Amino acid sequence: MTINIILGVSLVLAAAWTVMTARLLRSVIGLALTSMILTIIMFKLNSPLAAVFELSVCAGLISAIFISCISLTQRLTDEQAATKQKERFSKFWLLPVILVLAGVALYQVHIPLDFHLQAAPSESDVRNIIWNLRHLDLIGQIAILLAGAFGVVALFKD
Amino acid sequence: MTNELPQVFWLFSIGAILLLITGFYCLIMTYNLVRALIGLEILTKSVTLFIILAGYVTGRMALAQALAITLIIIEVVVIAVAVGIVLCVYKNIKSIDGRLLRNIKG
Fold first, then answer.
1. Which of A127, B90, B100, B102 is most buried per CB count within 10 Å?
2. Minimal Cα distance from A131: which residue of B?
3. pLDDT digits (tens, 9 = 90+) for A39-57
């Protein structure tokens, strides 16, 4: 249970740091860190395949996309970064307060939860779900991927 | 494990709710387009965690993982296209400040 608390708290801390830091590059690093902590949580919740996807795609690919985008835009000077940091602090000082208050309030709430584990035999394998039971999702995913690829091509066309 | 299940569910649910708050706060308070996308990413992570938690407590991990993978793929496509749009905006107005988009015409 202690490790779960540490993971939950570090997940929220990483997300808060991502939002509050002034430099975009640090924000992206924070986002990758949040993804990594979420990956560990997913492994702990018996979802290894989704965790691997989260780690490779969200912590890897999306960070690379963001870093490419940031490298193509103009870098802040140190003075601008210092000014931005002050502006951000004035905008975002409320966020940690809200998070702490909401976290403590939610932790105090005791909702009677009664779960029973029951796995349907046909749903025991992710591959079976993806390839045999959810054809329409798969077609939708292919369509979305193609739409994204064509969208990016159209956006970067001269 | 069954006795721990409600505690684990509630603990990570709190984490997911706090992630949701962080993402919404970021989206509301920032004008930087890249940072808005980062806020959107945090919101998506919260939803992914909720889906995995739902699968964990109902025992339908395979279905939850399939949905989470679908969500991650959609997330990547949305971010790739949105980053493309941000770069096009930067090419035209030399800024990624959302407030300056009000002056765009045509």
1. B90
2. B66
3. 999 999 989 999 999 999 9
From A5, A34, A123, residue closest to B62, measured CB to CB: A123
3-state SS assignment for residue B32? strand
CB A31 within 8 A of CB B39: no
Cα separation, A14 vs A20, in Å, equals: 10
Domain of B62 in residue numbering reads as 5-103
Structural domains in chain B (count): 1
Q: DSSP of A67-123, one letter per residue?
A: HHHHHHSPPPPHHHHHHHHHHHHHHHTHHHHHHHHHHHHHHH------------GGG
B60 Cβ partners below 8 Å, 6+ apart?
A119, A120, A123
CA-to-CA distance for B96 and B33, rounded, in angstroms?
Answer: 6
Per-residue pLDDT of A57-99, as tens digits, reads 989 999 999 999 998 887 777 777 778 777 777 888 888 899 8
Burial class (CB in 10 A: 0-12, 13-18, 19+), A98: middle
CATH number at residue B37: 1.10.287.3510
Contact A141 B73 (CB under 8 A): yes
Cβ count near A90 (within 10 Å): 9
Q: Please name the member of B2, B23, B35 whose beta carbon is closest to the beta carbon of A27.
A: B35
Residues in chain A: 158
Cβ pair A38:B64 closer than 8 A:
no
ipTM passes above 0.85:
yes
Q: Which residues pair with B36 in a beta bridge?
A: none
Minimum distance, in Å, between the CA of residue A72 and any CA atom of chain B? 8
